[in-house]
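step=encode ok
step=design start
structure_in=
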């Protein structure tokens, strides 16, 4: 019997071929034909799974996000006991930064996607959908920290959540441009968290 093709697995393989191209020569100049060649399949076969570059980018971005969520959960699972809000925030922020080859490639794909989304309303809606959920997660953790006395009661959890997201996004750009090293970016994350949580009056 012919081998049954796992269509979701094939789509992931195509997404990973796109990542490899993005990590070495960028994504804007890469065609569907380039990605098909990198994935070791014909253009016609690739178009069976993705009819356009934008559709492929949307899937690749979602796959990157799912992998990131899995890595965050693994990081948090390795912490001893019940992790404090500050520990959880640091693990998520660390995962958002391009600190190694895999996360750097993921960041490059995300940036390529966002550049296209600026000029495409359909893509922009997809890009914007993830921000409120991340902000709500961060704000929830910060409200817990305020209740525990670890962050000052005068802090606006929603505003601080967006500042953390913006800090991670800005540092990602600076690391990719080699303005900062990954180590510099982590130090700045820790510096900001120390200031934020230090306002609670106790460590």
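sequence_out=
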């Amino acid at each position: 019997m012919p081998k049954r093709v796992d269509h979701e697995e094939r789509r992931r393989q195509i997404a990973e071929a796109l990542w490899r191209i993005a990590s070495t020569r960028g994504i804007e100049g890469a065609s569907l034909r380039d990605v098909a060649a990198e994935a070791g399949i014909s253009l016609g076969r690739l178009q069976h799974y993705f009819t356009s570059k934008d559709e492929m980018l949307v899937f690749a971005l979602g796959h990157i996000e799912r992998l990131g969520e899995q890595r965050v959960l693994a990081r948090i699972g390795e912490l001893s006991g019940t992790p404090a809000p500050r520990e959880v925030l640091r693990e998520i922020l660390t995962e958002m930064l391009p600190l190694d080859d895999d996360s750097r490639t993921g960041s490059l794909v995300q940036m390529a996607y966002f550049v296209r989304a600026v000029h495409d309303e359909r893509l922009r809606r997809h890009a914007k959908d993830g921000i409120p959920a991340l902000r709500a997660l961060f704000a929830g953790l910060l409200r817990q920290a305020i209740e525990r006395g670890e962050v000052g009661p005068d802090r606006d959890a929603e505003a601080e959540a967006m500042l953390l997201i913006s800090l991670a996004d800005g540092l990602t750009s600076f690391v990719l441009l080699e303005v900062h090293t990954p180590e510099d970016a982590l130090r700045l994350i820790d510096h900001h968290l120390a200031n934020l949580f230090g306002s609670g009056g106790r460590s």
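step=design ok
step=annotate ok -> DSSP finds nine helices and no strands in the chain.
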